[in-house]
User: Fold these one by one.
Assistant:
Number 1:
Amino acid sequence: MRTDILLGNPAAYRKLLDHLTRTAAPSSGHDLGGMSVDVEYYLGEDRLLTGFELQVRPPRGHAPASEPLIQASAAWSLKGKGLELSQRAAFLEWVWTQRLCYSYADAHVISATPEAHVQLDAVTQIDADDFFVTLHVDVAP
């Protein structure tokens, strides 16, 4: 499926994701639970989204790059549908960069599918030689 990149740096995202899945441990236990609570609070409680669902996949060993530790899905509310595509992407990027990602390292890509889904793929690491979290968010039109 073809996607259009709206925001972020795909090369930087892929490079950090590949590096962390080879060299660091995925988040688990209370740390992963804490991030999932934050995702639900900052995205699931926002008035721009509706029908928010969250799935947490505790890691077994190192998490494959193709399987995010946290997956979320939602649809745009009536208020969200009133935004331009670029504003929807900016909202997801703002929540990621200002509310969710760790300050040590992060990379993300926000894309749009031909069906007008807006998707956030992100990875962040809490500190050098410490755990990482991967996130995929899909917001339907």
Number 2:
Amino acid sequence: VAGITISSGDANLKLYDGAGTTREITSGANTGLKFEGLYPGFRDYGSFTFQNASLSPIKIALTGRLTNANGNWDELKNNIYVAVGEGTKENMTANYTGWVSLNSWNASVRSLNVPSLAKDEVKTYNLYVYIPADVGNGIAGKSLTNVAFEIYGTQE
């Protein structure tokens, strides 16, 4: 028997800013996403679109971790919460991760708890930012810059 070809596929997760596949975010790229004027009770979100662009017919599970934040980390790490979900600013229709402090996002890789992406599937999720109303004014004038999350796609 001759002429046999054997090759492997790949697991390829692509990330785009906003609700669409217009601008791919490559590793280390700046999304330009800003959450400004935060206060106790603040809630907002930014959208990201994921695509399973694998050559292989596999599903990809999504996980993530906060890997960098410069600025007033000690004052804000347990006062700012982030969730991955769907919906609007006022009405999150699905909260997949639950509200998790920046400190906990930084401590270890966490499942995004979103449905796995099938081959060629494109799905938009929101990254919500929330400050509980009981935080108080101790966060006034504080900021974080260069906040970075690494998102991982793992074959299922």
